[in-house]
Each structure stands twice: as structure tokens, then as C-alpha cells.
Please model this.
Amino acid sequence: MYMFKYVMKRLGLMLFTFTIIIVMCFILIKLLPIQVNIAPNEDPLIAYKRLEGRGWICNVRPGPNGTFLYERVPILLQLVNYAKRIFTQWDFGIATTYGEYLNMPVWEVFVDHLPPTILINIYSTLFGVPIGLGLGILAALKKNKWQDQAINIFIILLISVPSIILGLLIQYIFCFKLNWFPIQMDTSNDYFTWPVFHSMLPAVFALSLGSIAGYARGTRAELSEVLTSEFMLLARTKGLTKRQAVLRHAMRNSMVVIFPSILAEFIGVLSGSLIIENMFSINGVGGLYLNSINFQDYDFFMLLSGFYTLISLTAGIVLDISYGFIDPRIRMGAK
Model:
């Protein structure tokens, strides 16, 4: 009962937070000057009428020197109309200034670009989790020995160096010098073929390095603390070998803290990496997001901002709730 109330409360707070963020994003981008993108050989009046049809401007009329005059629709009224279109028609808008996708439904473009973002982040999680946990366990078992020192140096380097530098190093060493991988991702939509998977690997490695460092550091800290606990000494005095004590008791207790972070990151893989996607020419939603800002395409920006915000909030809730399911001693929401 306590868990159900806690989950409902967190979902309500997530919805409230999501609404505030989306409203702020909508208002801030609507305060910017309106850009009118006129396609080649297109009548300028059609471009203005397109914005008027979306409910952004009104009273479009000819102005001096071939220009057009218009009036802005109040921002709050635009927000109401935008929300009404989404909930009643599932209409997230069309691209009005994003030249490459001009007049195309933003939802369809978003869905087409989602698979590469999902795949490179899932691959990076599957690659980073076992390596990070393995390094963390080895460092904890060899605490204060040369293995521990070497792993700590490796972790500090990965955490300290920006991801863009790591990506450039991967491109230079493995793609340019050794020529093991292509510098850019294959443009084919056959995502489960070997050439496409092979072209994804440099981006996967670049994304997974930060995860490896985080998992290794967290696992070492938790496992080192558990190994020095009194119940571990009791387990050894009862006749268990070090291997048995570590596997039966130390690992299970340390995973109470480590596993929720893995679960939350797995949920949050959809958020992707804007920098890495652009560096390796991944045709995912990261490039769409950055370009939507550059083009000031309102509908693209709002859809992608909502997507990234929702994923981040969901990952945080999953992290908190998972504690109660993993460790029965934890009762979320209980007094």
C-alpha cells in the first residue's frame, strides 16, 4: 500500500514537472522572432498562410516592397491550440522552417530517426555494464594493490576527459590510423545488418566509456564497503571461503545500490548523446534536436524537448522505485 501511494505520488509529481518544463520551453521559443522559410519557387504568401494555419500568426496582408504584414497570436492561445491538436488529433505539427523536412509531419520524421538513437545507446549499455562491473569488482577485491591503482587511474581519465575528446581519439586511432571502422555511420536503414552495426561501433565505444567509468567507480565503492562489514567477518568464521562469502553475501548486498543505477540508465538510453551523434553522423534524433534549434522550428523543438524531458524524468522515477523491489527491507513512502 505504501509503495502504491509512493508510485502514484511520484507519477503525479513527474507529470507536474513535465508540464512546467514544456510550458516554459513553449513560451521561451515563442518569444523569439518568427522565421519564415520560403521554398524555392514558392509563393511567399503560401509560407505565411502556412504559419497562419498553424495558429501562430493572423491577419496576413500585403505590405510594402513585396513583404507581408501580420499579427502575432497571443502565446497562451497558441499553447492551448497546440495542446488541443495533440490530445484530440495526435497532431504534433509540421516542419515550417526546417528546410530538409519542410511541410513534413514532425512525428513521422521523429519516428524515422529514432531507431539509430535507440540502438547505439542500447549497444553502449550492453557493452559498458559488464566491463564496468568487472573492473569495479576487480578493483574492490584487489583494493590498494597495483590492479586497483591501475583501474583507478583509468577511471579518472575517462571521467576527466570530455566525451568529445574521447570521440575524436576513437576516430583518429581506430577509424583513421588503423582503419578498423568507418568514420561515419552507414546511411542504410537496414540497422540489423553487419555493415550498419560495424559502422555504429565507434559511436558505441565513445558512449560506453563514460558508463564504464561510472559503473566501475560505483561498484568498487559499494563492494569495498560491504567487504569490510561485520557480517562478512561472521560469514568467514562460519566456515565460508572468501569466494563463497563474496558471491553469496557481498555481491548481493552491493547490488542493492548498483542495480538500480543500471536499470535507470537502461531506461534513459533513449536520451542519447547529442555530441556523439553529430560527431559520428548518426542519423538519429540528436541531430534533429540541434537543427530544430538552429532553424527555430517550433514544432520540432517542442516534440524533441518533450521526448528528452520525459525520458529523463522516467529514468529518475525508475531509479527510486526500483530500490523497493530490489531490497525488501526498503519501503518507499513508509513513515
